[in-house]
Write a structure and sequence with these properties.
single chain, alpha/beta, Purple Acid Phosphatase, chain A, domain 2, six-stranded mixed sheet, 29% helix, 23% strand, globular
């Protein structure tokens, strides 16, 4: 298979894709989960969306067992990919993932195991590809300038959640003078319109959204005469097979068990609002972004039956 390496121009950390026609599929956090990544590509084919109309917001590699295979799959497909903190760290042969976890937390402890495993199985060529990824990917859809980043424009590993104040998001969008920022890193899907501009997180493909279901998440932005329609999609896949590989590789059981339970063991990073929503199954209504300030509203995800552990 021909391998495509989409990279920014020499000396630049921004890859500009120019004008995009047709729907865009956004995803991130494949986290070395091969089964989920294969299911995502199959879903894209069902939607009729080619890799040229897909963007990955980074963290191709992390918790699961197939770091090399997932890296190859994304590269071979030619999907434009933002550098996540995991790619930054692995590409630089750093000592840890640079996720922004506080010292002594569960997140920090668990990350050490998968990071050393991934670093050992990736090739030098994989790491060179990661080191050369752009930190931002810009494109225009239906006349709106969008910028994809990993955490936030200001910091690759900044956590931006739905509960993060609108003023913070507004400041981050201002930094890139965009109509929309497409972020990742926090692992939880949401869309929020702020003064007619969009902050969007598609969620993660490699781990569930802490909502008590094994589903993972991606999104589709579809231009139309009334504006851009934003749809969050849950995705089912063979999570048992992915978990079995993690078990065989000796990776942390907490992440392995999360694939089936849909619940994170490591809540250290979560603000109070997201902590309170743990175990509540997500469901999203479509959002039409007309672009008229003050007239759009992004409804919160509907809360379904709780699957919070006893």
């Amino acid at each position: 298979m021909q391998r495509f390496d989409l990279r920014p121009a020499a000396g630049s950390e921004i890859l500009d894709l120019g004008r995009i026609d047709g729907p865009m599929l956004i995803f991130g956090g494949t986290y070395s989960n091969l089964e989920a990544t294969e299911a995502l590509l199959a879903a894209a084919a069902r939607h009729g969306i080619a890799p040229a109309n897909m963007i990955c917001t980074g963290d191709v590699v992390a918790y699961c067992a197939d770091a090399a295979a997932v890296t190859a799959l994304i590269r071979d497909a030619g999907i434009a990919t933002v550098m996540g903190n995991c790619e930054e760290s692995l590409g630089a042969e750093a000592a840890d993932c640079g996720c922004g976890f506080a010292p002594g937390t569960t997140c920090e402890r668990l990350s050490a195991a998968w990071f050393s495993y991934a670093s050992a199985v990736l090739t030098d060529d994989d790491k060179r590809w990661m080191a050369g990824l752009p930190r931002r990917i810009a494109f225009t859809l239906a006349g709106r300038r969008m910028v994809a980043v990993h955490g936030a424009p200001s910091l690759i590993n900044r956590f931006i959640f739905r509960s993060t104040p609108a003023a913070v998001k507004r400041g981050e969008i201002d930094l890139v003078a965009a109509d929309a920022v497409l972020g990742g890193h926090c692992g939880l899907p949401f869309s929020e319109l702020i003064d007619g501009r969009l902050w969007h997180n598609s969620g993660a493909i490699g781990m569930p959204a802490n909502d008590g279901t094994p589903r993972v998440w991606y999104s589709i932005l579809t231009p139309g005469p009334g504006g851009i329609r934003i749809d969050h999609h849950g995705l089912t896949y063979n999570h048992a097979a992915a978990a079995a590989k993690m078990r065989a590789a000796g990776l942390p059981r907490e992440y392995e068990q999360a694939l089936a339970s849909g619940l994170w063991d490591n809540d250290d990073i979560l603000p109070p609002a997201e902590t309170a929503a743990k175990g509540t199954a997500l469901a999203f209504a479509p959002l039409l972004w007309s672009g008229t300030a003050g007239h759009d509203a992004a409804p919160p995800p509907r809360q379904l039956a709780s699957r919070r552990p006893a």
